[in-house]
Design goal:
The complex is a heterotrimer. Chain A is an all-alpha fold. Helices cover 67% and strands 0% of the residues of chain A. Chain A folds into 2 domains: 55 residues, no CATH class; 240 residues, MetI-like fold, CATH 1.10.3720.10. Chain A is flat and about 75 Å long. Classes of the chains: A mainly alpha, B mainly alpha, C alpha+beta.
Chain lengths: 315, 283, 356
Amino acid sequence: MAGSTITSYGPAASEVFPEPRRRAWRALIEPYLYLSPALILIGLVMFVPLLLGLSFAYRNIHLLNPFSGGFVGLDHFSAIMGDKRFWRALINTGWWTGASLVLQFSLGLGLAMLLNRPFRGKRFVQAIIFLPWAVPIFLSGLTWAWLFNPVIGPLPHWLAALGVMSEPYNILSNPSVAMWGPIIANVWFGIPFFAITMLAALQSVPYELHEAAAIDGASAWQRFVKVTLPFIAPVIAITVLLRTIWISNFADLIIVMTGGGPADSTQIVASYIFTTAYRRLDFGYASAISTALLVLLMLYSLIVLQLRRRLAGKV
Amino acid sequence: MITVGQSKARRLALHAGHTAGLAVFMVFAMFPLFWLVKISLTPNNLLYSEGITLWPSSITWDNYQFALLGSRFPRFFLNSVVVSLSSAAIVTLVAAAGGYAFSRFRFAGKVPIMFVMLLTQMVPLVMLIAPIFKIMSPLGLTNSLTGLIIVYTAFNVPFATFLMQSFFDGIPRELEDAAMIDGCTRLTALRRVIFPLTLPGMGATLGFVFTAAWSELLFALMLINSDDKMTFPVGMLTFVTKFSVDFGQMMAAGVLALIPACIFFAFIQRYLIQGLTAGAVKG
Amino acid sequence: MAEVTVRDVYKAYGAVRVLRGVSIDMHDGEFVVLVGPSGCGKSTLLRMIAGLEEINSGDILIGDRVVNDVAPKDRDIAMVFQSYALYPHMTVASNMGFSLEIRRKATDLITAAVGRAAGTLGLGDLLARFPRELSGGQRQRVAMGRAIVRQPQVFLFDEPLSNLDAKLRVQMRTEIKALHQDMGTTAIYVTHDQVEAMTMADRIVVMNEGVIQQIGHPLEVYDRPANQFVASFIGSPGMNFLEGTARQTADTSWVEMVDGTKLPAPRTDAEEGQTVIYGVRPEALTIDEEARSGLIARVDVTEPTGLSTLVFSRVADSITCAFTMDRLDLTRGQPIGLVPDVARVHLFDQASGVRL
């Protein structure tokens, strides 16, 4: 056949194309009919409160004080600047999020790699290992709090026997190490999530790539570093980003296990917001801290996404 | 696994390491729950002498008897079941409709709406506690199970919608085309063909929301204050702060709280992995 | 049974123009094949006839009825999908009887209709099975069965054989054609496979980029392609195209190639000196092993199939294919002469591609 390309013999591109008929009104509205319950719920129960919450930050809303509700401008925010408890909580948030994330991620990835190969009884093992995820969070918190309690929990005794502790005491009541209690509970609870996500990512790596790399002479370790990791890096990045935000907002375990104490040593920003709203009923100030937290989280996301884009650009 | 060319000893070592690794994870996962059960079965008089042994010399069902008959836990349990089941059922219906719209229609505003729904997943929920209380209080929805159901439903709808969308996406569009050519309207096609095929997905969504609602603590703590409206988490936490000495009874109650969540989890596990896989691959 | 009329139909998805003024009259009982490369709009046209896609403008008629805004369920059509689209949660029997069930026909009537269709297609033993328990070929048959149970006015086929292996495809091709001849129902069949189009169609509709290129009987389309696109798309291996200049005297006409070779050409209304594409199918070329006549080319590759041999040879920069039933002994690089049969030569206008 000749090398000449086959062109189209239709009307020229400048042809007059008839105006499409108007789509039936029903066809335009139909998807919204299906979506409307979801949109109404989200709008009323998430967006309205969110906007209201943002407005509270500039008002004096005290639940028990009937005369509250006045506009206070930026007073709450200047109070935050001088609020030592807030800054303490912010540092604790970083510590809590960082430690939980690193441990959850590394253990979760390790577990995913163990599970990413066929073995006998896999379904059973998987069900057992993922079980902590199903345990209601308040119960995980309580259980771990009990495990750290020297009266009924073995952990202090074991730690003492190992020489880590001089005598069995409850780490949750020692301000210098109390944060480790909720962190360990959080790691226990969070490994399954990471393991499942990473397992899904690992399974998306085409096996042929491994075979090709093996034929090209790569060792198992080289295959992991050169094939697996780059392949799942985008999933890791997005999971870590989302999980960071989630963990930094995750106050339940702390509220159950320590209530932020002793002496605010385990107070994170999210639990501080809850305490301010729930115990002090100071909705205005709670909303101001919430606004600050939201801004910080958005900044964090922007920075991470920028970094990711720059890294992706390099590769 | 590529095992050709590995020596037998190396293979055995790898196998042993693999098994040992899994065993460590299994022990770590199970130990706290085992301990919960163990303390709940330990008689009170042995608690201090055998509190930290692996298994008590004798066991008792007294703690369960108290939790079931002598306490308000059955009430809390019932409240939690009502709230969790209602939320799960409503969310599943709402999310199925929304997921269907996302999966099957092209329409103006689809991308922004999906984006906004993703964004709701980023909002720190503690932020909403005060404003929601403020809105719901004059409506009589505080200290009310209905109020809790509304809150839990709304919070779970976005994720559930995406989950349902992934299940609908898994059903070929041509099945609907075929059904419509065979004589169905869109709604009949939905009922006769799509709905039966989405049942597993709906079950998974149901289980997911049930588990989430069953665990929720902070909103329930804020919105509920009377004994007869408390959900299990609130009731238990109140119990803990009031009677923080009776460990056996608390743990028996804890085991009770664990049961429904575990049943649902066993049921949804497969689909959760599927849903997350879809999400992970897409993301 | 009914005729199907497509009248000046346009379709666009946003800025992408899929169909640009398509008109076809399909007669009652006719087997019409829509063929073209992927993205030519043939499937969209079929789906619009089925009512699965809206049309932007124009009309579609089934029988005398304009069906532009008629729902698929009310068009009295049946369709066989490329993926078969069998309902996974229903047995073979329920799949086949579904359309009747939806129309609330009596159970015994449905059973009888399903039984008849199953008998015709040899599915009798499989009625209680689920689609996942069937092989690809069996699923295809069930999809066919679901369509014929209905006794619709029009059958629509959307590449129904492309998921089958080559052998089964040939077999089903014959069966579908036989079935159509027995039933006599109008059938519209979409395929990208020009062999299917040639072997099955009463009439072929060749489409490209949303425009109909030619409508005609298979052999008519093969022998007298309307333009260079049709000539290249229909026929395998495809037609050879060579660029040259049309020359004519009072009683002969020929085309002069770039290298000066003169190839005999049929009498056309090509003007003297016009740049034309000289088109000749492989079987219209005779090979002169001695390279004493015709267009001189160098052998590139020979492909013997046993029955025949394809000889690919190089003329200037392009490859020319010749078809011969002889078993030639040719070596790479050997010069040969390609002698065209002037009665089967086509000239196309170089600019528009239209056959002269």
